[in-house]
Write a structure and sequence with these properties.
The chain is α+β, with helices and mostly antiparallel strands and 149 residues long. 17% of the residues lie in helices and 23% in strands. The chain has two domains: 2-95, no CATH class; 103-139, no CATH class. The protein has helices at 47-54, 58-69, 90-95; strands spanning 2-5, 11-15, 18-21, 28-31, 34-37, 44-46, 78-80, 110-113, 116-119. A hairpin with a 6-residue loop joins strand 3 (18-21) and strand 4 (28-31). The structure holds zinc ion (ZN).
C-alpha cells in the first residue's frame, strides 16, 4: 500500500524500539520497532518496500498500514497515493479515518409494495441506469417458460 505525505521525510513511529533483557543472563536484545518513513524526495511510503527493507512480517506490515490509515493525520497530511484506492477491499476502507467518497450509482428500477416505493438496491451496470436484472435492454434468460410474478 502506497501512502503520500505532504511533508518531506515525514516519519511515524508505529511501535517504538525496545530492549529485551534476559532476566537470567542479563543479555540485552534489541526488539526493532516499526517506523514508517516517507521518502525525502517523493514523499511516498510504500509499505511493501518497507517490509522488504526492514524484514517485517506480513502482520507487522499490516499493523503499519492500519496505523497509518487510522491516524489523525490521515486525510490531512497523509493520503493514499493515486491509484491505491481502487485496490482496497471493504475491510480496509472501513479502517480508514477519512472514508473515500465513493458514490454508488444505484439501479433506478422502482417498485411499489403496499403503497411504498422501493428502489432496487443493486448497483447500476457501468454506463447504464439499471442493474443487470432490471435493464430492459439486457438479453434475458428466463428460467422456465413463464416468468414468475
Ligand atoms: Zn435493479
Amino acid at each position: 500500500m502506497i501512502f503520500q505525505s505532504r511533508f518531506n521525510k515525514h516519519t511515524f513511529v508505529v511501535r517504538p524500539t525496545r530492549v529485551a533483557i534476559d532476566p537470567v543472563h542479563g543479555v540485552r536484545t534489541p526488539l526493532p520497532g516499526l517506523i514508517a518513513e516517507f521518502d525525502r524526495f517523493t514523499r511516498l511510503f510504500d509499505s511493501e518496500d518497507a517490509q522488504q527493507k526492514h524484514g517485517w512480517s506480513d502482520e507487522e506490515r499490516v499493523a503499519v498500514e492500519d496505523w497509518l490509515l487510522g491516524n489523525k493525520a490521515f486525510g490531512k497530511d497523509i493520503f493514499l497515493a493515486p491509484g491505491e484506492l481502487q485496490k482496497l477491499d471493504e475491510a480496509t476502507v472501513a479502517k480508514m479515518r477519512v472514508k473515500p467518497a465513493v458514490k454508488v450509482r444505484r439501479c433506478i428500477d422502482l417498485r411499489i409494495v403496499k403503497g411504498q416505493v422501493f428502489q432496487c438496491d443493486q448497483e447500476a451496470t457501468a454506463g447504464r441506469d439499471y442493474c443487470k436484472a432490471h435493464d430492459p435492454q439486457e438479453p434475458r434468460i428466463v428460467k422456465g417458460a413463464v416468468e414468475q410474478k
